[in-house]
Please model this.
Amino acid sequence: MDYLPLFFKLTNQDVLLVGGGNVALRKARLLCRAGAKVTVISHRVCDELQQLLDANQGVAIIGEYHSALLDNKMLVIAATDDNELNERVHFDAVENNTPVNVVDSPKLCTFVFPAIVDRSPVVIGISSGGSAPVLARLLRARLETWIPKSYGKLASIANHFRDQVKQKFSTVNHRRVFWENVLQGQIAEKVFAGRESEAIRLIETKLTNEDPEHQVGEVYLVGGGPGDPELLTFKALRLMQQADIVLYDALVSEAVLDLCRRDADLVFVGKKRDNHAVPQEGINELLVKHAKLGKRVVRLKGGDPFIFGRGGEELETLKAHNIPFQVVPGITAASACSTFSGIPLTHRNYAQSVKFVTGQLKNRTSDLNFDELVHPNQTVVFYMGLHTLPVLSQKLIEHGKPSDTPVAIVSRGTSADQKVLTGTLKNITELQEKAQLPAPALIIVGEVVSLHENLSWFGEEVLAQNLSPVKAEQ
Ligand code: SAH
Model:
């Protein structure tokens, strides 16, 4: 280990910063965040730095650096573009036994600034010892995404209960188990969701209750996105990795499912068209049953749970049984398929609005208001419309939509076998009969589809001229 990581208490401590430009400003911001009193010495001090100093009991001295400025300083930082000056600061500081950092010159540093993940009071510093600062920053970016913003709050709440927990549990081991349960799982999730008072109440119950395991669990209704696991939200991923049980739909991809906690029970409750594995009421009951057993239940759905996902109905049942829940949005098929096929859903020249519509029709006659769907300058996106495509396109034409309106079918959007077929209202049914693109597929109707030719960037193109004629039925 070339450097020992230490955390400096800088509150009200004097620190010298040599330099008054942008680099100095960045360092000054950090120092001020830690409560230091910063003295800047420089021939010029940029306005922003001056304002920062004014607001944080700092001072700027306009003039020449000299070694006497080091007296009584806890740290010194040189952030100038004058190498000779930087070196002088270094040697003076070493002589004076003052820790010194010269920006971008590891050799002249007796301490280095780590990349910081700040969830105060929890702070993480990452250092490559000056050898690859970019690597440290990349690592930081990963941690930033992985550690919820309100982690610090969790630490403060834990601190609040420290003495009580010590009193209640006499052994270190018992305390450790208690804290592990609190700091990951339901209570932590309450804090991350901004429900601190509920979290505090749960800790209090846990501390007084002889059998804290006898508590009701929680249901997380999670949008699993369109298939590509990289399109999950951080929150979705975190909750999936905490689940005791996952109830998932047919639309949830293998790759997404793979990211659930290894020990979780995975239960398929998916619905394929006209073939319900578990009827909706059954799913509602399952959610209630497992939550009442104290489990953390993830209800994982394709796309967004509130868009053609019946998420609302499931939550109503939970509400009726007083089971706590959280909902995590997911990227819905319309967003995913449009971006991954290079078809913007709105565009200044072509469409000022977009409608998400179900293509499922009762008894093959439409309960949709087609008069509304044929307005010009609007994009219409049909979910669940693949099998009703002939009726949909015919009805749109009958209600006045020009038959040459561009249409796209995006099949298995965002997956490795995504396919896009484009045509017009008039010929899309015939093209799809030949192409036989598989479900799930989304249908996009509107002028914006014409942008696909130019903006397509992902997956395979299905070209109309390569399609063979429809095979005669055997
Ligand atoms: N809640 C989901 C939609 C459920 S309805 C969401 O927000 O995306 C199911 C329909 O969504 C399918 O019939 C299909 O039209 C569409 N769909 C879902 N995932 C898709 C995908 N990866 N590619 C294309 N269409 C998809």
